[in-house]
Specification:
Blueprint lengths: L2 H15 L5 E11 L2 E7 L1 H16 L15 E6 L6 H8 L8 E5 L1 E10 L2 E11 L3
Antiparallel strand pairs: 1-2, 1-4, 2-3, 5-6
């Protein structure tokens, strides 16, 4: 990714996000699956709208956006699995957490990251931080 592309994407994302309000979200229930443990994010539509805004900004710079538009599932990952493991023992250990009320969060800014996968781990660098409207 060139520096010119990064600058253009950041500028366009800032322009398109300037009027978006902060996201008031809830995190939870605990949602373990074969790849890790996550927290469900609600309401999805606000996160999906922000994601679509960022994708549209990318689309003004690149002819195609690398990640598909469909299939996105808003979540917060709290643990990844480093190897295949049965999910039932994990689900059993986390069952009591499923009764906890969700955490409430307010997202006031969005980090734009360069994401890569190295040695079966995700690594990223924050390229810019885009504020949402107050």
């Amino acid at each position: 990714m060139s520096d010119a592309d990064i600058k253009a994407i950041v500028a366009e994302t800032r322009r398109r996000s300037a009027d978006l309000p902060p996201l008031e979200l809830s995190l939870g229930l605990v949602d373990p699956d074969a790849e890790g443990v996550g927290l469900l994010v609600r309401p999805w539509d606000r996160v999906e709208h922000l994601r679509a805004t960022i994708r549209d900004a990318l689309g003004t710079v690149w002819p195609s956006v690398p990640e598909p538009a469909q299939g996105f599932r808003p979540h917060v990952t709290v643990a990844y699995s480093g190897a295949p493991a049965p999910t039932e023992p994990i689900r059993a250990r986390l069952a009591e957490l499923r009764d906890q009320p969700p955490a409430r969060v307010t997202i006031r800014q969005v980090p734009l990251i360069a994401l890569r996968r190295e040695n079966r781990s995700y690594r990223w660098t924050t390229v810019a931080t885009v504020p949402l409207a107050e």
